[in-house]
Structures are given as C-alpha cells and as structure tokens.
Amino acid sequence: MLSRLTRSQALAVCALPVVGLIATAVFAPLPFSVAQPGMTANVLGENRGTPVITISGAPTRDTSGQLRMTTIEATNPDAHISLGDVIDAWWRTDQAVMPRDAVYPSGDSVKEIERHNEAQMRESQDEATQAALSYLDRGDEKIKVDLELADVGGPSAGLLFSLGIVDKLDGDGSGGDLTGGRTIAGTGTIDADGTVGAVGGVALKTQAARRDGATVFLVPRAECSDAKSELPKGLRLIPVTTLKGAVESLVNLEKGTGSVPSC
After folding, report:
1. Residue 24: per-residue pLDDT
2. CA angle 109, 37, 152 (to 5 degrees)
3. Confidence of residue 114 (pLDDT cuts 50, 70, 90)
4. Residue 64 burial by CB count (10 A; 0-12/13-18/19+): exposed, middle or buried?
5. Cα(149)–Cα(37) distance, rounded to whole angstroms?
6. For the segment 31-52, what is each residue's pLDDT rounded down to a tens digit?
7. Which DSSP string do the residues of 168-186 spell out, in sequence order?
C-alpha cells in the first residue's frame, strides 16, 4: 500500500532540490577574480631602497614632484571565488569582479603566470626606454637606462617609465620639472614609437592614486569612461594617446599655457 504525503511533506521534498541548487551556486567556485586598488610607486624615486630609474651615459636632473605608477591587486588564479564573494564585491566601490581569464592567461599555473608577467614587464621597460629616447631625439646616443621595480609584473607601467626617463633627462624642456612639483599618477602601456595603450582596472587605479596623494591621473583615452565611473574627489583626469601628448599636457598644466585635455 502506498502512503500519501501531506501537503507540508510534499513541499519539503520539492524544496530539497531547490535548496541544493542554491547552496551549490553560493559555494561553488566561479571563474572570476576579485580586484582592489594596489600599491603605487614613484618612478622618480626609490622602491625598496633601490632607484626605480638609473641612467648612465648622460647627465641627469634632480627632480621634484612624483610620477606614480599604479597597480591593482587581484585574487590568486587558484583562489576559490563563490557567488557570495561576487555579490559582495559587486556592490563595493573599492573592489571589482573581473573574469579570471582577463586577469590571468587561461590554464596557466601560478609559476607560469609569474614568468609571463615578468617577461611583459621586461619588454615594457625596453619599449619605454626606446620611446623616451626617441622622443628626445637621443636614440643614437650611448645612454643606458636601468629600470627596477620589485614585485610588479605586466606592461601597464610603460607610460610612467617613459615619462620618468624624460623628466630625469630633460624635464619640461626649459629647466623645469615635468611634474610641476605635483604628484602625478597614471597607467598605460607604451610601444617603442610612443603609442599609449589601454590596460584595464583603471577605476581601481584612480583610487590607489588618490589614496597616495596624486591630484592628476593620466589615463589611456580609450578608458576615460571607466576612469570616471568611480573617480575620487580631487583627482583630475588627463586622457593620453601618445608619449608626446602626455608630455605636452603636463608641460601645459605646469606652465598654465596651452590646452590640457580632459575626459
């Protein structure tokens, strides 16, 4: 003989699969990384007791002000990110949820990712040096540039490296500092021909910049809207597409002459 379930028993039995699905969704790992504002470093100064930019083969200037490269910190590629983590980060302005593949190459181990980022950093440093010396028409001189920045990988500091080299060798071109004594921050890749490229994570980088005292932020023009989305009070955005344009904008800002673009 078959027994008949009561209404409450039937509802309880039907609810079990739904509860199981919800629990699985909440606690199962998801293919995302959670990022937040990272460290910044003044490329005109020292990082962990070592000068970030060392130039030999040419006289250099004493500089004032700062040029701060910016970073984001993301969860490790093997970190367990649940739906709860995603929902929590979604509503916070100091965190962002990003596809893991957008932060880390898909399928790579932590060691492989570290090697990949280190290789990108070395390539970025070489191109930043070429771009700066070419801009100054000093590419045929025997000038050696060493760039040291511990525990930072990837190509996104390229623009700031180039600006630091220009400031140390030539300043604003007429005896003044490229920074005008300000704390300037920014981000952007750079090619040897001086083209500035997008990097991602700019909304978090603006927060890191303002936290560390910056009042001006150089952003790849293509990422203006992202940079404005969570722009901290007191931080001015200057969009750039080339090293030449970035230098001209900073000189115009310093001297109060000429136009300075905005997002």
Report:
1. 41
2. 50
3. confident
4. middle
5. 18
6. 677 789 999 999 999 998 999 9
7. HHTTTSSSS-TTTTSEEEE
How far the first Cα of the chain sits from its last, in Å, is 76
> What type of residue sits at position 132?
A
Tokens of 151: 């525990």
Total tally of structural domains belonging to the chain: 1
How many residues make up the chain in this entry?
263
Contact 98, 204 (CB under 8 A): no
Kindly state whether residue 169 falls inside one of the protein's structural domains. Answer: yes
Give CA angle at 257 (251, 262), nearest 5°.
70
Range of the domain at 239: 39-73+121-255
d(CA 120, CA 115): 9
Structure tokens at 246: 């970035």
Domain contains 244: yes
What are the start-end ranges of the H helices in the chain? 7-27, 83-90, 100-103, 110-135, 158-169, 202-211, 224-229, 243-255
Q: Strand 183-186 and strand 216-220: pairing? A: parallel
Q: Rounded to whole angstroms, how far apart are CA atoms 185 and 213? A: 9
- State whether the Cα torsion 152-153-155-156 is positive or negative: negative
Q: Are 211 and 188 in contact (CB under 8 A)?
A: no
